Structures are given as C-alpha cells and as structure tokens.
Amino acid sequence: MKTKILRVKGDWLEVLNDCRATVGKDARDSIPSIDFRKRILIAEHSPIRDISIKWFWDGIKSFSATHFSRHKWECFIETQRSDRTGIPRDELPQGALVSFTGEANSQHVIDTSRKRLCYLADPDTREYWEDLKIESRKVEPELSDVSVPNCIYRGGCPEMQSCGFFEAFTKKHGMFSSIQDRYDAYNDDFYKRVKEKL
C-alpha cells in the first residue's frame, strides 16, 4: 500500500441537502441511498464537491509528484530546495523520493482519474492513482467506483493515438447503453487485476 487516507471532509447528507436547496426543497436528516450517490457522481452536479479526500504518499518519485501538481487541487510536496535539504538541487534526480500530501474534492478525483488511470499515463504515476482508488474505496466506495480512465468515462478513446485498452474492453464486454454498467464492468476488471494489492 502506498496511500494513507488522512481524512474525508464533508458527507453525503450535506451533498443531498445542497442538491435539495438548488431546487427549493427543505433539508432532510437522512443519509441518501447508494443509488442517489452513484447517480449524482455520474451526473457531476456541483454539490459533489462537498466531499473531499485528503491522503499521504511517502516516497513518491519527484517526477510523479510533478505530474499530480499539474491538476487543480491542493498538494504539498516535500521540498528539494538546496537551502533546506543541504543537497545541491542540481544533483537530485527526477526519481528522487519525496513525500506528498494531496487533498481533492470529488470532482477533482473524477477529473484526475480520467488522465492518470489512462494507460498512456506514466506507469509509476498511474500506479499511485490506482492505489488511491483502491484505498479510497474503503472510505468512499461510490467515489472510487466513478474513478475511471477517460476512455471508460467517455465511451471511447479521445487520445490522438490509442493504447488499445478501450478496444480490448469493448471486445470483451461489448458496448453499454448505461454509463453505470460500463463503470461496473471496468471496476470488476480493475479489482480482479489488482486483487493481490487488497
């Protein structure tokens, strides 16, 4: 395991009541169903941003940390400044290990997954995001299950040159009329592949 979940901020009651407020309905005090959670995450309505996950990676390669810093969520990366480490920065390789703390709301997680779970992404970087998907399933399973690569999200590969993953996926499963069914098939395959990590 590479990922340590530090905390989850926000909850599903807050999401539900923010949704209700947008359509002029009174707040409720009961947690929404799993079906509601799945549907609102797939719909990506703004109240999903009420839920954020904060995590820690110890010993991530500097270049992978830089890949994640390109996304628009909070990240705190161990410095490589010479005046703080005592090591000339020019002597540190891109593969130098750094600690990394990230915090992303549900929309950020969905958006980052589209790029970092893609098989054209750097393998080391993808491995860290896969580990976050695995660990976040223990605390926010519906969010983890909508964390899919771009081809699964869009129903086809949008890259200029495909890695072939979506073609193999549709050859195995066929095409789906339901986004949820497509996500379920991807997650079944994903967890069979990473079973040894669980």
Structure description:
This protein has 198 residues and is of the alpha+beta class. The chain has one domain: 2-Layer Sandwich (Gyrase A, domain 2), CATH 3.30.1360. 46% of the residues lie in helices and 15% in strands. Strands 1-2-4-3 form a four-stranded antiparallel sheet. The protein is globular, with a radius of gyration of 18 Å. The model has no long low-confidence stretch (mean pLDDT 90).
Using brief descriptors, characterize the structure shown.
Gyrase A, domain 2; alpha+beta; 198 residues; four-stranded antiparallel beta sheet
Q: Which radius of gyration do the C-alpha atoms yield?
A: 18 Å
Named CATH architecture: 2-Layer Sandwich
Query: What's the CATH topology name?
Result: Gyrase A, domain 2
Number of strands: 4
Structural class: alpha+beta
Mean pLDDT across all amino acids: 90
Number of domain modules: 1
Main sheet: strands, sense, barrel = 4 strands, antiparallel
The unreliable regions are none
- Give the SSE order as H and E letters: EHHEHEHEHHHHHH
> Could you give the order of strands across the largest sheet?
1-2-4-3
- How many separate helices? 10
Portion of residues in beta strands equals 15-25%
Which of globular, elongated, flat, extended, rod-shaped describes the shape? globular
Q: What fraction, in percent, of the residue positions are helical?
A: 40-55%
Distance between the termini: 8 Å
Top-tier CATH class: Alpha Beta
Walk me through the topology.
Layout (H helix, E strand, L loop, with lengths): L2 E7 L2 H11 L11 H10 L8 E10 H8 L4 E4 L4 H4 L11 E9 H11 L6 H14 L4 H5 L4 H5 L10 H9 L5 H15 L5
Antiparallel strand pairs: 1-2, 2-4, 3-4
